[in-house]
Structures are given as C-alpha cells and as structure tokens.
Amino acid sequence: MGVLRPGIMAALGKAGLSRQFWPDAMAHLVWSLNRTVHSNDMQHTPYELLEGHPPTLAPAKTFGCMALYYVPREARSKEDPRAKWAIYLGVADEDRKS
Known about the structure:
By secondary structure, the chain is of the alpha+beta class. Helices cover 31% and strands 10% of the residues. It has a two-stranded antiparallel sheet with strand order 1-2. The protein is flat. The two termini are 24 Å apart.
C-alpha cells in the first residue's frame, strides 16, 4: 500500500476530488499499473504474464477528467439529452478484465 499511496493522492489532487473517491483512484491506479511494463521484466506487463496476451488500453482515460456517458432510451424522454456530463472515476467493471 505504501507504493500506491502517492499515486492515489496525486490522482485525487490533480482531479480535485476528496478522499471519499480513494477506492476509485486506487482501482484506476492498480488497473493502470497492471498494464504497464515494470523494471523487473521490461518486455511484459503483469496483465500479459497472467493472461497470456497483451492488454488493451482502449478504455483508459485520465482519472478525474470530464466525460460524457450515454443515457439509455428507456431512461429519458424524447426531449432529454442522449448523454450527460460526469467525472471519469475509472474503467467500468466489465472492462477491467480486458
């Protein structure tokens, strides 16, 4: 945890978010670190060593940035916007495995 704390605090500080978002920042940092090459094996990421194939970084965004999310048709009226603004807090659960 000592290695993660500075990264979590930096992410929260840069995003201007309070400590209540600590779990989201930690999940995002761990997700990112598992897809990054480390000094002990400069050719493979931890994800690649575990899963056997390189990870996709397509869902990665900057923690705390502004993001648009789609509002399903069933949850809006005809006049409502199709998307709403939110703060990006990390990769969705279904994307964390890829």
